[in-house]
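Quick check before the chapter quiz. The format below is the same one you will see on the exam, so make sure you can read both the input and the output lines.
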Amino acid sequence: MVSPSNSLPVGDLPTGGSGALLFVGGRRCCYFNNENYEPVGPIPESSIIVLMSFTSSQIKPRQRRGSAVDRNAFPPVLLPETQKKLNGNERLVQFPKGGFIFYQDQGAAGTHELVDGFVKLFKTTDEGRFQLMRIAGPGELLGYRAVLLRAPHNVAAEALTPVKARFIAREEFTRLLQDDPDVGMRLLRHLSIDLRETERQLLNISRKTVAQRLGAALLSLEAQHGTDDDGALQPRLTREELAGLIGAATETAVRTLSEFKERGLVRTSGRQIWILNRKRLARL
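Here is the expected output.
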């Protein structure tokens, strides 16, 4: 465990402050409360080192091998203490790889909080074109917008890997929002990040080259979802899915990825992709 006793001041951490993460540098940081990963306050910008006291098992859901914690990752909406208020009215459901959590234009029966696995959210246009919106991972809440709007899902959700999720019926989720303002605030943060990512994706498609979009997508996948035990990006996407993520034709995405390999930016083997040079990818 890192000790701050001989370091520069780190500001006033809460008493019994286990659960702070380590940040180095002059950036403004947040410390986090135990295993919930809930930001509870800023650390002054003059801080250099923040005490880290998580165990490796507590870190794992948010930080995987080879990856730094992404400060823009989706915050959990349902904390352990919140789940107790559901009084057993939620249920754990499982989906095989390729299974659908819900379909586009299907009525929303409730929300799904991902416990384990990865899900792709995508739209199919009236012309039959496939558009991958984003990849969702553990801790993210799916289907809440349709529930709040009492409208059909505007995207489909398909399991990229075997998935475990916590299903909460529409009426129960609505009651929880009414009874617990903190859940509403966390949901607003979740929605704000979701909206910002959508805006960023639209901006990338309209203003950046395919190479720039692909480089940004690979870095984003690593930052948000980490790497597997081999150090490859996860989840493993098909070339069609990767192309859909950046709004490009499959042939164009495959050609650009091959160019990245020739330039020493990435290495591939089947669906596995390893990032070799992050700085050059970011500067494309």
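If your answer matched, good. The chain is about 35% helix and 20% strand.
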